[in-house]
Design brief:
By secondary structure, this protein is an all-alpha fold. The chain has a single domain, classed as Orthogonal Bundle (ABC transporter involved in vitamin B12 uptake, BtuC). Helix 12 crosses helix 13. The longest helix is centred in the C-terminal third of the chain and has 41 residues. The protein is globular, with a radius of gyration of 19 Å.
């Protein structure tokens, strides 16, 4: 199966795109899970939509539009932390709803509303080309470098905010850095799996690895391996379903289903292990 599956160049590009996305999302996702920022990551996967839509209407690169919207969202999400009368969750929800509604309102002006919206939200993994891979590598590389350079500071901030503040670490800037890294992951995932499914690559593999009780760096490595493995299997399943059973299955969605399945299995096994230890 694997020989036939990887024979086509577009399948090879799709697999490489999944591997790039999986590695980048794993490194950033572990920090997101450590800080319990899953809702923020989900919000950012929605708020990049207006930037993508505007870039599409202007004939510009979608990555640029997504990056502008993502950075804008990251900057806006920094303000609620300083506003005591507005809960952070409420502020994130407001930004999410308003940006996503703006994107839908703009894209609805076009005649191909349903087609365009589906492409923006769910991507098209099998149409990723060499230029997309290059941009994914560059944008994802920036996110990884940022996480590596500030790794110690980010880990301390995640586990002990009071200690981080006591030694003078810039908490707000570190929070902004993680938000910006999430935005870069969403941009990396744009063409491959779209804006909505991108959050699954950020959260699910990282949560699976952390459920295993691993340390931070091993969690990143395991999360990346899970994403790469599920990506390979998901592409293979979608390919075989189309070739042998004449059933069209979205490869990106198939990968996300596999990621979720692995998480559920690990969660059940970990729960049983903990129960047996406490017995």
């Amino acid at each position: 199966m694997s020989g036939t599956f990887l024979a086509a160049p577009y399948q090879q590009r799709a697999l490489l795109a999944i591997v790039i996305l999986g590695v980048v999302a794993a490194v950033v996702g572990v920090h997101v899970v450590l800080r319990r920022m899953a809702f923020v990551a989900d919000a950012m996967s929605h708020t990049v939509l207006p930037g993508v839509v505007v870039a599409n209407l202007l004939g510009g690169p979608l990555y640029a539009g997504a990056l502008v919207a993502g950075v804008t969202t990251a900057m806006l999400l920094g303000f609620p932390a300083r506003a005591r009368r507005i809960g952070e969750d409420a502020a994130v929800a407001i930004v999410l709803a308003s940006f996503f509604a703006l994107g839908v309102a703009i894209v609805s002006r076009g005649r191909s509303f349903a087609t365009d919206l589906t492409g923006f939200l769910f991507g098209s993994l099998l149409t990723v080309d060499a230029d997309d891979l290059l941009l994914m590598g560059i944008v994802g590389g920036v996110a990884i470098v940022a996480m590596v350079v500030f790794h110690k500071e980010l880990v301390l901030r995640a586990f002990d905010r009071e200690a981080a503040e006591a030694i003078g670490l810039p908490i707000a800037r570190l929070d902004l850095l993680v938000d910006l890294a999430v935005a870069l992951v969403i941009v990396t995932a744009l063409r491959a799996v779209g804006t909505l499914l991108a959050v699954a690559f950020v959260i699910t593999p990282a949560a699976t690895a952390r459920r295993l009780g691993l340390a931070v760096v091993p969690s990143m490595l395991v999360a990346a391996a899970i994403a790469a493995l599920c990506g390979t299997l998901g592409l293979a399943i979608a390919h075989e379903a189309g070739m042998r059973a004449d059933v069209r299955v979205a490869p990106g969605a198939t990968v996300v289903v596999l990621l979720t399945s692995v998480f559920l299995v690990v969660a059940v096994v970990a729960w049983w292990r903990d129960r047996m230890r406490s017995a």
